Amino acid sequence: MTLSGRYLAALLVAGVTLVPIAFVVLGGFRTNAQLNADPTGLPSPWVLDNYRSVLGSPVFWRLMGNSALIAVTATVLTCGLGAAAGYALARYRFRGREGVYTLFTAGLLFPLGVASLPVYLLLRQLHLLESWFGVALAEAAFGLPVTVVILRPFMAAIPGELEDAAAVDGCGRLGFLWRIMLPLARPALVTVAVLAFLGSWNAYQLPMLVFNQQAHFTLPLGVAAFQSQYSQDTAGILAYTALSMLPALGFFVFAERRIVGGMAGAVKG
C-alpha cells in the first residue's frame, strides 16, 4: 500500500471513530425539535440548557464519583498485581513458568459473559455484593491478563547486568523492582494503567451484576437509567452521554503517546 493509501485508510478509520463522538457532543447543544427536524445538522442556535441541567444534577456527580473511585482502585490493583506477576515471570526461573504465562495469555480469550455467574457467586460468598470494592476487585482480575502480557516482555528486555550491578550495591530483588525496574518500565505501566482505567470507567456488565441500589451506580448504569427515565428527551440523553465519556476520552488523548511507546516496547521485548 502506498503512503497516500495509508493516509486515506487512516482518515477513514478516524472518521468512523470521530463522527459518532461528534454527533453525541454536538447533539447535546441542540433541542429535541432540531434533532427531529435534521438529526445530522449543526446546532442552530446553540443551546446550553442540556449540559447545564446535567452538570447541575447531584445524581450525575454522585455517579461520576462512584465511577472514579472504582476506576482508580481497579487501576491501582491491576498495575500493582500485574507488575509483580510480570516481574516474577520475566526475571525468575522456576518450573512451570511458561505454563503460568500461558494461563495469563489464555485469559485474554475468556469473556466476562462466560464468567458472570461464577463471579456473582464468588462475590456473594465474599460479601462483596453492593460493594464498590467488589466491582474493582473483579475488574482488576479481568484486567490482569493483558497487563501481564504487556509487562512481562517489557521487563524481560531490561538487561540482566542492571540487576547484577544493583545486587553488588546491596539492592535486593524487591528494591530492584521498586527503584530500577518500575521506573524503566514506566511507558508500559502507563499503557496498562490507561487500559485498566478506561476498561473500568466504561464497564457496564460487572456493575450491573453487583449493584441493585441506584446510590451505588456508576456512570454507564446511570446513563442507561437516564435513558429509560427520559426516553423522549433525546438532546438531554446526548448531553448526559457526552459528559459521561469526556473524562475517559480526555485521559486517553493525554496519555496516547505513552500508550504507543509502551505497546511498541512490549512488542520489541
From TrEMBL:
UniProt-listed SUPFAM superfamilies: MetI-like
Location(s) in or outside the cell: Cell membrane
GO CC annotation, single: plasma membrane
Keyword Membrane among record annotations: yes
UniProt entry tagged with the keyword Ribosomal protein: no
Domain of life: Bacteria
UniProtKB keywords: ATP-binding, Cell membrane, Membrane, Nucleotide-binding, Transmembrane, Transmembrane helix, Transport
Membrane-spanning intervals of the chain: 7-29, 68-89, 101-123, 129-151, 184-204, 237-255
Domain ABC transmembrane type-1: 64-255
Topological relation to the membrane, as annotated: Multi-pass membrane protein
InterPro entries: MetI-like (IPR000515), MetI-like_sf (IPR035906)
Protein's GO biological process: transmembrane transport
Annotated GO MF terms: ATP binding
Homology family: Belongs to the binding-protein-dependent transport system permease family.
UniProt-recorded name of the protein: Thiamine ABC transporter ATP-binding protein
Organism of origin: Kitasatospora griseola (Streptomyces griseolosporeus)
Top-level taxonomy: Bacteria, Bacillati, Actinomycetota, Actinomycetes, Kitasatosporales
